[in-house]
């Protein structure tokens, strides 16, 4: 599903130019992808060099293609409201803190111990969108989001632990990169940005994330009839680590260090019980870390950034970020619908405004 932001003060000529440019760039880009990969694209600071991904003679990079496609759609950090597909609006509270795009001060981070099946297929010359799994679908969503808004992006292929579940890679990876950024936005592969055109700054404003909040996470669904599920020993709902906004504050590194070392039972007795059982590092954070640093953790309602449509418990339906614990194939559907809205908007504009006089009106149906 995709929504359209308000038009604001954009002029018709600007919108027309951007639409036409987007279409031309998109066509050239797809033509360029038929050649071997070679040209790197520039992104972030000069010190960060990204892998080459497209043709030697390509007129534009995939960054430019994506950004031009989304230029008519992209919301500003202070956009007064976001329009839902059903016509309703999500209004931004007054006095937003983040007024400008943070660019390379934000890192969109993916962590995986699994190789991408789609990459294996690509290397064999067998890549097909229809056959990729939800892992690639989610990662493509995250990477595209970074391109649209000019954020840095990293995919870390991590080594598995020998003594604990793979999800324990999160604290150390976050700790090793937070010093270089103001914010790290992490998502599991089965989580996705619902609206690719809405920047993280808008969401930070909407959620009222202040400089003291080291961690922002959404709560898990909680059922009063079965309070033992998704709850800690005090029947308090866990926060889900499938989506995290980590801010670089004076408390962030101490929290990450305590979290990473938790299973060693030094600071927190019995934390080693969460090395393997569910919910691994999430349980450890919920049982121990947040109680020592409670005021620095922003807990969002489940429906804000967890779950997906159809989840009734806690109304956990993924308002801004969706986390498909089940029905994981829907990650690809969300991504497809986002992209198709951006691709078809300039096409629709051509027909709506009869650009190039492609529409001919006839007065009668006769053979001349």
> Helical region count?
10
**Could you state the order of secondary-structure elements as H and E?**
HEEHEEEHHEHEEHEEHHEHEH
- CATH superfamily, please? Spore Coat Polysaccharide Biosynthesis Protein SpsA, Chain A
What structural category characterises the helix and strand content? alpha/beta
The CATH architecture name reads Alpha-Beta Complex
Separation of termini? 45 Å
How many E strands?
12
The name of the CATH topology is Spore Coat Polysaccharide Biosynthesis Protein SpsA, Chain A
Helix content: 25-40%
Domain module tally? 1
Instruction: Please report which band the strand proportion falls in: under 5%, 5-15%, 15-25%, 25-35%, 35-45% or over 45%.
Output: 5-15%
Which CATH class? Alpha Beta
Low-confidence stretches are 1-20, 24-56
Radius of gyration: 22 Å
Descriptive keywords:
globular; disordered N terminus; Spore Coat Polysaccharide Biosynthesis Protein SpsA, Chain A
Helix and strand topology:
Blueprint: H1 12-32, E1 37-39, E2 54-55, H2 62-70, E3 81-83, E4 89-91, E5 106-112, H3 117-123, H4 134-149, E6 152-157, H5 169-177, E7 183-187, E8 191-193, H6 200-207, E9 215-218, E10 243-247, H7 252-261, H8 280-292, E11 297-300, H9 302-305, E12 321-323, H10 330-353
Parallel strand pairs: 5-6, 5-7, 9-11
Antiparallel strand pairs: 1-2, 3-4, 7-10, 8-12, 9-10
Helix pairs in contact: 1-2, 1-10, 2-4, 4-10, 5-7, 7-8
């Amino acid at each position: 599903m995709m929504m359209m932001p308000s038009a604001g003060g954009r002029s018709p000529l600007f919108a027309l130019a951007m639409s036409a440019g987007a279409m031309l760039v998109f066509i050239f880009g797809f033509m360029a992808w038929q050649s071997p990969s070679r040209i790197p694209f520039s992104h972030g600071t000069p010190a960060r060099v990204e892998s080459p991904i497209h043709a030697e003679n390509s007129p534009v990079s995939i960054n430019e293609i994506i950004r031009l496609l989304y230029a008519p759609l992209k919301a500003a950090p202070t956009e007064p409201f976001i329009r839902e597909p059903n016509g309703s609006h999500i209004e931004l509270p007054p006095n937003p803190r983040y007024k400008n795009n943070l660019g390379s001060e934000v890192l969109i981070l993916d962590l995986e111990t699994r190789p991408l099946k789609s990459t294996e297929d690509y290397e064999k010359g067998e890549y097909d969108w229809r056959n990729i799994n939800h892992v690639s679908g989610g990662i493509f969503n995250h990477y595209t989001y970074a391109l649209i808004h000019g954020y840095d992006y990293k995919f870390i292929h991590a080594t598995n632990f020998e003594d604990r579940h793979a999800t324990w890679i999160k604290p150390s990876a976050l700790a090793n990169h937070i010093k270089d950024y103001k914010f790290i936005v992490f998502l599991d592969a089965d989580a996705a940005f619902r609206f690719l055109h809405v920047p993280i700054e808008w969401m930070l404003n909407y959620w009222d994330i202040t400089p003291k909040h080291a961690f922002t996470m959404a709560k898990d669904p909680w059922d009063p009839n079965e309070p033992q599920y998704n709850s800690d020993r005090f029947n308090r709902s866990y926060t889900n680590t499938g989506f995290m906004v980590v801010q670089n504050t004076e408390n962030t590194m101490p929290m990450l260090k305590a979290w990473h070392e938790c299973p060693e039972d030094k600071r927190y007795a019995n934390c080693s019980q969460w090395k393997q059982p569910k919910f691994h590092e999430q349980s450890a954070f919920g049982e121990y870390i947040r109680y020592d640093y409670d005021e620095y953790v922003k807990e969002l309602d489940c429906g804000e950034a967890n779950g997906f449509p159809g989840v009734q418990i806690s109304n956990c339906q993924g308002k801004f970020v969706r986390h498909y614990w089940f029905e994981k194939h829907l990650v690809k559907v969300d991504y497809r619908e986002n992209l198709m809205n951006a691709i078809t908007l300039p096409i629709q504009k051509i027909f709506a405004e009869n650009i190039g006089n492609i529409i001919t009106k006839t007065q009668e149906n006769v053979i001349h």
